[in-house]
UniProtKB/TrEMBL annotation, chain A:
GO annotations of cellular component type: cytoplasmic exosome (RNase complex); nuclear exosome (RNase complex); nucleolus
Family under the similarity heading: Belongs to the RNase PH family.
Organism this protein belongs to: Sinocyclocheilus grahami (Dianchi golden-line fish)
Residues making up the signal peptide according to the UniProt record: none
GO molecular function: DNA binding; RNA binding
Cellular localisation: Cytoplasm; Nucleus, Nucleolus
Entry protein name: Exosome complex component RRP46
Family annotation (PANTHER family): EXOSOME COMPLEX COMPONENT, EXOSOME COMPLEX COMPONENT RRP46
Subunit structure: Homodimer. Component of the RNA exosome core complex (Exo-9), composed of EXOSC1, EXOSC2, EXOSC3, EXOSC4, EXOSC5, EXOSC6, EXOSC7, EXOSC8 and EXOSC9; within the complex interacts with EXOSC3, EXOSC8, and EXOSC9. The catalytically inactive RNA exosome core complex (Exo-9) associates with the catalytic subunit EXOSC10/RRP6. Exo-9 may associate with DIS3 to form the nucleolar exosome complex, or DIS3L to form the cytoplasmic exosome complex.
Principal subcellular localization: cytoplasm
InterPro entries for the chain: ExoRNase_PH_dom1, ExoRNase_PH_dom2, ExoRNase_PH_dom2_sf, PNPase/RNase_PH_dom_sf, Ribosomal_Su5_D2-typ_SF, RNase_PH
From TrEMBL, chain B:
GO molecular function, one term: mRNA 3'-UTR AU-rich region binding
Protein name according to UniProt: Exosome complex component RRP43
The entry's keywords: Acetylation, Cytoplasm, Exosome, Nucleus, RNA-binding, rRNA processing
Annotated InterPro entries: ExoRNase_PH_dom1, ExoRNase_PH_dom2, ExoRNase_PH_dom2_sf, Exosome_comp_Rrp42_subfam, PNPase/RNase_PH_dom_sf, Ribosomal_Su5_D2-typ_SF, Rrp43
One Pfam family of this chain: RNase_PH_C
Gene3D superfamilies listed in its UniProt record: GHMP Kinase, N-terminal domain
Subcellular location: Cytoplasm; Nucleus, Nucleolus
Occurrences of domain Exoribonuclease phosphorolytic (ranges): 31-166, 192-256
GO biological process: exonucleolytic trimming to generate mature 3'-end of 5.8S rRNA from tricistronic rRNA transcript (SSU-rRNA, 5.8S rRNA, LSU-rRNA); nuclear mRNA surveillance; nuclear polyadenylation-dependent rRNA catabolic process; rRNA catabolic process; TRAMP-dependent tRNA surveillance pathway; U1 snRNA 3'-end processing; U4 snRNA 3'-end processing; U5 snRNA 3'-end processing
GO cellular component: cytoplasmic exosome (RNase complex); nuclear exosome (RNase complex); nucleolus
Major localization class: cytoplasm
Similarity field: Belongs to the RNase PH family.
Species of the source: Sinocyclocheilus grahami (Dianchi golden-line fish)
Length: 240, 277
């Protein structure tokens, strides 16, 4: 299991940068909980991974490129299906909305035209929810797609920001912080140009708060991308 | 000849218009289709409205029922929005249980209701822990030509403004609720959230209010919901190609202007209805 350690020198450097450009924020820059990931833990799926952010944990499995039902096949590219299984009960409307976000993000990242009339299925099993659920789902999906070896044009990672009632911006909130916040914003950032791939928000906020959250998410995404690189490097350096 | 080109190479057909900064139906890149609104379309519902954005037609009916409040919020009523995309509106939708697009749209509307603080849910409560109103908002698309989410938000807002709830008193002796159908009060709407949808073409060109064809050819879709105080209630971009900060800001500015246009429209229609009475 590869775990990240919040690099103190890097953290204080980014905090310093944030202080100069955004005076109102004091301790809210890039404060991610401890995150970790494990790949290739399941034998049957083509790619699998777990992603843990604090106490939130998601297990992802990827099957693909595989056969697709004739009703769902697309003539020139692969069909991406995402299934999110909650801890209890059957997937409901909330899971469908999350599935749509994950599916469209994966469709933009994967090179689907290389596998026409095939299917890529991403299954996400919720293990524990302690806030930042959609972010953890997207991160787990990206690691599983990497593990499956599917060709992608860029990687993606996701960061959640919560705006508290006093206006403070908290990154990677826990479930308690999410409940007490006035707005919750989740962004998926791409690895090449650091632009926003996916945005899902609840609660009301001003345009300035949105821009601040995007800037904070872009900064935090650099940490997560570095973690992807390190964990894959570590894994493949062992295989000779 | 143009019809043949459109069928054979739809993307190239649309690109040739976008190069000249216009679209295949003659609109500018930032122009919305003509929007019409009709209130009280369903006489048996407590509130209803019908909206047409170009060819996209969406109707909403609100039914209010009495129920016990949920145990985690005993002093609040609640709203249950449901978006239905029947096979009638487009050949893309097959009969059967609601598909992903309908469910995602229902969840989006529920999020917008909560984010924008549309109605004070405490006002829907009649007797704490015992009785409250539940508003079932059924939104049905009759003709799908793109831009579903904008139409759903406008029609829901108009139907809520049109809704009238009867007065309910609790009889102290029998402890039963007495509904007085003669006395009806309108709902108090706090905010006016209005959505604007955008489609991104080829990662660079942004068009406003896409039709169904343009939606299927686009590389990303974005919906921005603003309220009358220029605060954002939702920035919904469910994936697709990336968008830079300046383009996002440009979309938000367009959404703010759209909010003013729609608020005026809704205000005008409600005023004409009350003067017609």
């Amino acid at each position: 299991m590869v775990r990240s350690k919040n690099n103190d020198a890097y953290m204080s450097a980014t905090r310093g940068l944030c202080m100069r450009s955004m005076m109102e924020l004091d301790q809210s820059c890039s404060n991610l909980r401890e995150y970790g990931s494990e790949q290739s833990l399941l034998s049957k799926p083509d790619g699998s991974s777990t992603f843990v952010q604090g106490d939130t944990s998601i297990l992802a499995g990827v099957y693909g490129p595989a056969e697709v039902k004739v009703s769902k096949e697309i003539y020139d590219r692969a069909t991406v299906e995402v299934l999110i299984q909650p801890k209890m009960g059957l997937p409901g409307v909330r899971e469908r909305a999350r599935e749509q976000c994950v599916r469209e993000t994966c469709e933009a990242a994967l090179l689907l035209t290389l596998h026409p009339r095939s299917s890529v299925t991403v299954i996400l099993q919720l293990i524990h929810d302690d806030g930042s659920l959609l972010s953890c789902c997207l991160n787990a999906a990206c690691m599983a797609l990497m593990d499956a070896g599917l060709p992608m044009s860029h990687l993606f990672c996701s960061v959640t920001c919560a705006i508290s009632k006093e206006g403070q911006i908290i990154t990677d909130p826990t479930a308690l912080q999410e409940k007490e916040s006035r707005a919750l914003l989740t962004f998926a950032i791409d690895s090449v140009e650091c632009n926003v791939l996916m945005s899902s928000t609840t609660g009301s906020f001003s345009v300035q708060e949105l821009q601040q959250c995007i800037a904070i998410s872009q900064k935090a995404s650099e940490q997560i991308f570095q973690f992807y690189r390190d964990s894959v490097k570590r894994r493949y350096s062992k295989i000779k | 000849m143009a019809a043949g080109f459109k069928t054979a190479e739809p993307l190239e057909y649309h690109r040739s218009f976008l190069k000249e900064n216009c679209r295949s139906d003659g609109r500018e890149l930032g122009e919305f289709r003509p929007t019409t609104l009709n209130l009280s379309s369903i006489s048996t519902a407590d509130g209803s409205a019908l909206v047409k954005i170009g060819n996209t037609t969406v109707i909403c009916g609100i039914k209010a029922e009495l129920t016990m409040p949920p145990s985690d919020a005993p002093n609040k009523g609640y709203m249950v929005p449901n978006v239905d995309l029947p096979p009638l509106c487009s050949s893309k939708f097959r009969p059967g249980p609601p598909g992903e697009q309908a469910q995602a749209a229902s969840q989006f509307i529920a999020d917008v209701i909560e984010s924008s603080d549309l109605i004070n849910m405490e006002e829907l409560c009649i007797d704490k822990s015992k009785l409250c109103w539940v508003l079932y908002c059924d939104i049905m698309c009759l003709d799908y030509d793109g831009n579903l989410l904008d139409a759903c938000i406008i029609v829901l807002l108009a139907a809520l403004k049109n809704a009238q709830l009867p007065e309910v008193t609790i009889n102290k002796e029998t402890d039963l609720a007495e509904v007085d159908i003669q006395k009806k009060k309108p709902l108090k709407i706090n905010r006016l959230p209005v959505g604007s949808s955008f489609a991104v073409f080829d990662d660079s060109i942004i068009i406003v209010d896409p039709t169904a064809e343009e939606e299927s050819l686009s590389t990303a879709l974005l919906t921005v919901v603003t309220d009358e105080e220029d605060r954002l209630c939702a920035v919904h971009k469910p994936g697709g190609t990336s968008l830079s900060g300046e383009k996002l800001q440009h979309c938000i500015n367009r959404a703010i202007t759209r909010n003013k246009e729609i608020s005026k429209l809704v205000g005008k229609v409600i005023e004409s209805k009350t003067t017609a009475k």
